[in-house]
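Key result, reporting period 2: structure in, sequence out.
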C-alpha cells in the first residue's frame, strides 16, 4: 500500500506493508514503527500473523527509508508528528502503536502528543534517554561498514553471533547488515542523531494514558533491561505499565525470538475490546 501524506510531507509517497490484506473498517488497527537504519521488513514475522487474525496492520517505511520517499526527518518529535499524519490519512479513530528502539521513542512521543488516538502502546528495546555512543555516532557518518559491524555486535546475542538462527539457514547478522546497506547514505547517521538528541522521553511518558508494554530482552546490550527502570517510573499519569523480559535474545529480538515477541504483543493487545483469535 502506498499513501501520500500531504498533511506533513507534500508530494512524497509512503510505502506501508499491510500483511497482504487490505485494511477493513471493522477491525482494530496497529501501526508498527521500525528502528534506525531499518524498514518495514523487520516486522514481517509478527505483523503477517496479526493481519490474518483480526487486525489491520500498517507498517510504514519512515520517510527516506526503504521504499518511502524522503526527506529523512531529523527529530523524534517530527517523526511522531509524521506518524500522527499517517493515522489521520488512514481515517481510523484509534490505533495501537508498536515501536522498536528509535521506533519506540517515536511511538512514545506520538502517544503523548495525541493520547486520545492511541489505544495501546508497545515499546520494544526502549530506554529514555537513548544516548548513542560517540564512536558509533561518528562511524555512522565516516565509516558505514564499521558502524554496521558495531551495531551487529551490540544488537545480537552471542549464540546468534556464532550462527544460531530462529529461522534455519538464515544468517541474521548478515541479513541485518544488508538491510542497513540498502538505506541511502546519511540515513543511519540522522536516525542515530535523532535518538541521541531526544530528551523528552520522561515528559512524554507522563502524558501517556493508554495501557503500555515495555518489552525487553535479557541479553540486550543496546537497551538493557536494567536501564528501563527510569522510563517505567516516568509513566506517572493514568497509563498502566507492564514490563516483560524475554530470555536469550538481544536487541534484535524480533528476528532472534520472533515467536516470543509475537506472543508478548498479542497477549498485550488482547486487552483491547476487539481482538482476533489466539495464536495456535
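The corresponding designed sequence is given below.
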Amino acid at each position: 500500500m502506498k499513501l501520500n501524506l500531504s498533511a506533513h510531507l507534500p508530494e512524497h509517497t509512503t510505502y506501508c506493508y499491510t500483511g497482504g490484506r487490505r485494511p477493513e473498517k471493522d477491525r482494530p488497527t496497529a501501526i508498527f514503527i521500525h528502528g534506525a537504519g531499518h524498514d518495514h521488513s523487520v516486522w514481517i514475522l509478527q505483523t503477517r500473523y496479526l493481519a490474518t487474525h483480526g487486525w489491520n496492520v500498517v507498517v510504514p517505511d519512515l520517510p527516506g527509508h526503504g521504499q518511502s520517499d524522503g526527506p529523512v526527518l531529523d527529530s523524534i518529535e517530527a517523526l511522531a508528528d509524521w506518524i500522527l499524519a499517517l493515522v489521520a490519512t488512514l481515517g481510523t479513530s484509534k490505533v495501537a502503536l508498536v515501536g522498536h528502539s528509535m521506533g519506540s521513542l517515536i511511538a512514545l512521543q506520538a502517544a503523548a502528543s495525541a493520547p486520545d488516538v492511541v489505544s495501546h502502546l508497545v515499546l520494544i528495546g526502549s530506554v529514555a534517554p537513548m544516548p548513542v555512543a560517540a564512536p558509533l555516532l561518528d562511524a555512522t557518518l565516516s565509516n558505514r561498514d564499521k558502524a554496521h559491524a558495531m551495531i551487529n555486535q551490540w544488537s545480537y546475542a552471542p549464540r546468534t553471533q556464532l550462527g544460531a538462527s530462529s529461522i534455519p539457514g538464515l544468517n541474521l547478522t548478515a541479513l541485518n547488515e544488508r538491510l542497513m546497506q540498502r538505506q541511502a547514505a546519511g540515513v543511519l547517521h540522522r536516525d542515530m542523531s535523532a535518538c541521541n538528541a531526544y530528551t523528552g522521553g520522561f515528559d512524554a511518558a507522563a502524558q501517556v494514558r493508554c495501557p503500555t508494554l515495555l518489552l525487553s530482552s535479557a541479553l540486550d546490550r543496546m537497551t538493557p533491561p536494567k536501564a528501563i527502570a527510569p522510563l517505567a517510573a516516568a509513566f506517572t499519569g493514568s497509563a498502566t505499565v507492564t514490563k516483560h523480559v524475554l530470555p536469550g535474545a538481544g536487541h534484535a529480538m524480533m528476528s532472534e525470538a520472533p515467536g516470543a515477541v509475537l506472543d508478548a504483543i498479542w497477549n498485550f493487545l488482547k486487552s483491547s475490546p476487539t481482538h482476533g483469535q489466539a495464536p495456535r
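Confidence is low (pLDDT under 50) at residues 273-280. Residues 62 and 201 are 20 Å apart (CA to CA). This case is discussed further under Risks and Mitigation.
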